[in-house]
UniProtKB/TrEMBL annotation:
Protein name in UniProt: Polygalacturonase
Organism: Linum tenue
Keywords: Cell wall, Cell wall biogenesis/degradation, Glycosidase, Hydrolase, Secreted, Signal
Localization (cell): Secreted, Cell wall
Active site (catalytic residues): H242
Keyword check for Membrane: no
Gene Ontology process terms (BP): carbohydrate metabolic process; cell wall organization
Signal peptide residues on this chain, from the entry's feature table: 1-21
Amino acid sequence: MNNSALLSLLCLVALLHQSLAASPQFNVIQFGAKPDGRTDSTSAFLAAWKQACSSTRGVTLYVPKGRFLTRSMLFKGPCRNSAIFIRIDGTLVAPSDIWAIGNNPNWIEFQYVNGVTISGGVLDGKGAPLWSCKLAGRKCPTGATVQQTLGFSFCNNVLVSGVTSLNSQMFHVVINFCQNVKLQGVRISAPGNSPNTDGIHIQMSTGVTVVNTKVATGDDCVSIGPGAANLRIENFACGPGHGISIGSLGKNVNEPGVQNVTVKSTTFTGTTNGLRIKSWGKPSNGFARNILFQHATMNNVQNPIFIDQRYCPDRNCPDTASGVRVSDVTYQDIHGTSATEVAVNFDCSKRNPCKGIRLDNVRLTYNKKPAVASCANADGTTIGLVQPGSCL
């Protein structure tokens, strides 16, 4: 590097440091938050947010080390600036009493915010009491049964980096009606038997990216719902869990579809599914199209490749024929081991058969022997080595 370039770099660093130093910082401690894990700090967090959101300059909302107990918190915009940086060095803790968290469907929720970054920290959802209540068949709080640890609705230009979510009551992270959201270096953890604890749920959103993330949970590691488009998942580890699922789709007759999804460089370990597309077995105008699954490793996965168009948990599907149209789905370089003999299962709709399914270098075994493929109402092609042998 020559002297001129070095001088320019030093000037840039100095300007950046000056900019950060000049930006207002709101420490939740200054608003009355207590890092003891026992004192309710909800009002302090909301007061700090009010100040940050009303600032006309970029700001930092700082959560220092310690454990901060909070009930449901709604961080609502629009704000007067589009550069709110939330730095978390501590742990946010939900109430262990499932009746105390409140009836807001999210524990930590952002609405109508443009330009927010959440960096670091741990979100401890204290989900075990609710799981026990549900598994025992007891009466559980209505609000808590739709609880999500971290939710974004109607937000744009969001970055979540280095955040850890533990033991969510239900879904860990939900992205709904958003644009340009990036999750990177996120860690999500809950026991494999924790009910309905989806890792990341995305619907009605465009331009969502999930990279360098690890999810271990009791439901889908990622669930992709209606209206998701231009989605990328890369360098992702799943297990335990139910895999990466597009769907369920087609629960409603009039429903937006899912399109332009890329899932690459993934590892599944001991999951019930790997790469799954599922739709309700009932009429719908929904669709799933232009989907690429690339470079996936399966380690003892029950259903490594699965299209299930007869999904019907409430048993209200008279003819089990899905109206959802599945087309242009590519599986490229998918390899590893299946925990069941049927490693590739395309169970497509008899009303709208799957079209444009492509298997490209798929190598899956079962008990060190060739696995089996099963197809119903599916049409497509194969390229290169495909094991088990194609049934398309």
